[in-house]
């Protein structure tokens, strides 16, 4: 990739990738920006503008080649680079995320799950045996995962992150209620499902006030 | 609320609300935009700009009154309006979300959980008994929940949403892999945890290419 792509386009790319994967899986070989626009509830001009950032894969009167575009977006997102991840925390959230997520088509292979609770160490989550948290340092030094997913209690977030950074981890997906601050040279993605509830609350109250309900 | 607030400010408000709640819970009564900026990794001018949308709660040399600002943002988000929600799907994701989420401080009271699998009907999730999905129509007509949370299999998403709209539901938080399309008069928030993985993959590969690793 030669060209710097804007942050807002990058934020939209995973959604393009999901839609193109669904189209590809349904055997659809090409799609017009108009039809993609209808499926994604995005204007056709937004789609053309977003996808033109990468040199424009569409041809007038032909539309987009679904497989080609899907592959290009996967390349841009780095989904085929074989990145690896470990998860810390084998509670409800860890278990659900590890079980429900198509890691490998999202760019990562989950190679280890760790917990400090002896009651869950040794149990199996989606084919991975939960290891004792005390073993994580050696595991990281040996296997050099690119990323750690944190599903630990709020109080433990900062200290676990600092310990893992000490072992060489440079990226985090953090599910715990406590936000990880941005740190120099460290990539952080904080996930807050409650924020979606608050946005819904706002939208419902806005509609209430406009008298639509 | 008199003034129309932009979508991007609204998207940031839940985060302000979380940070202000943490400050309030720690007994902090007032905070400067500089200190709030440091804690939130947002520029102080961004904070002033965002919060000035609502008439500006800050005073030069005094900073923001934490409780007042938290309460104002809660009012704007409609968190104190006693909205109610039902959940459809008592699998891993439904169970985890119902258990881990502070619904009431996020604007909603969860009043019912439904599933079509007889094996989970009657079980208890965080104090709520799972009911048979066949009973949801009567329940909605009687209790008029404002919103439904869908944690159903991909294939069922569209038909469940259509059925619930028929019963009067006008807002959805959708966790299933299949996106719900925007529909006239219906509020939809689709949640895709895998998108965070793809964004991380992008950021890691971008860093790889810049030779930082």
For the sheet with most strands of chain A, the description reads: 7 strands, mixed
Q: Indicate the percent of residues in helices of chain A.
A: 40-55%
Strand order of the largest sheet of chain A: 5-6-4-3-7-8-9
The biggest chain-chain interface is: A-B, 62 and 63 residues
Q: How are the secondary structure elements laid out?
A:
2 copies of one chain form a homodimer.
Chain A: H1 7-25, E1 30-31, H2 33-40, H3 44-52, E2 64-65, H4 66-77, E3 83-88, H5 92-100, E4 108-115, E5 124-125, E6 128-132, H6 136-143, E7 147-150, H7 157-167, E8 171-174, E9 187-190, H8 193-209
Parallel strand pairs in A: 3-4, 3-7, 4-6, 7-8, 8-9
Antiparallel strand pairs in A: 1-2, 5-6
Write a short abstract of this structure.
By secondary structure, chain A is α/β, with parallel strands linked by helices. Chain A has eight helices and nine strands. In chain A, a hairpin with a 2-residue loop joins strand 5 (about 125) and strand 6 (about 130).
Describe the protein's architecture and organization.
The structure is a homodimer. With about 210 residues, the first copy, chain A, is of the alpha/beta class. Chain A folds into two domains: about 5-75, Winged helix-like DNA-binding domain superfamily/Winged helix DNA-binding domain (Arc Repressor Mutant, subunit A, Orthogonal Bundle), CATH 1.10.10.10; about 85-195, NAD(P)-binding Rossmann-like Domain (Rossmann fold, 3-Layer(aba) Sandwich), CATH 3.40.50.720. In chain A, about 45% of the residues lie in helices and about 15% in strands. Chain A contains eight helices and nine strands. Chain A has helices at about 5-25, 35-40, 45-50, 65-75, 90-100, 135-145, 155-165, 195-210, and strands spanning about 30, 65, 85-90, 110-115, 125, 130, 145-150, 170-175, 185-190. In chain A, the strands form two sheets. Chain A has a seven-stranded mixed beta sheet. In chain A, helix 1 (about 5-25) crosses helix 4 (about 65-75) and helix 2 packs across helix 3 (about 45-50). Chain A is globular and about 60 Å long. In chain A, about 35% of the residues are buried. The model of chain A has no long low-confidence stretch (mean pLDDT about 90).
């Amino acid at each position: 990739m030669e060209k710097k792509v804007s942050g807002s386009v990058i934020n939209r790319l995973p959604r393009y990738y999901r839609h193109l994967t669904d189209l590809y899986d349904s055997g659809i070989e090409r799609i017009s920006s108009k039809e993609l626009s209808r499926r994604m509830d995005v204007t056709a001009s937004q789609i053309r503008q977003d996808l033109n950032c990468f040199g424009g894969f569409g041809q007038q009167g032909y539309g987009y080649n679904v497989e080609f575009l899907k592959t290009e977006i996967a390349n841009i997102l780095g989904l085929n680079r074989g990145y690896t991840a470990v998860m810390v925390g084998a509670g409800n959230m860890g278990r659900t995320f590890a079980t429900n997520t198509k890691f490998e088509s999202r760019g990562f292979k989950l190679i280890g799950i760790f917990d400090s609770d002896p009651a869950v160490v040794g149990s199996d989550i989606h084919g991975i045996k939960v290891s004792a948290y005390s073993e994580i340092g050696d595991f990281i030094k040996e296997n050099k995962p690119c990323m750690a997913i944190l599903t630990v209690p709020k109080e433990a977030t900062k200290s676990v992150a600092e310990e893992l950074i000490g072992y060489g981890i440079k990226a985090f997906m953090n599910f715990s209620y406590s936000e990880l601050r941005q740190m120099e040279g460290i990539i952080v993605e904080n996930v807050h499902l409650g924020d979606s509830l608050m946005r819904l609350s706002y939208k419902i109250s806005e509609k209430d006030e406009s008298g639509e309900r």
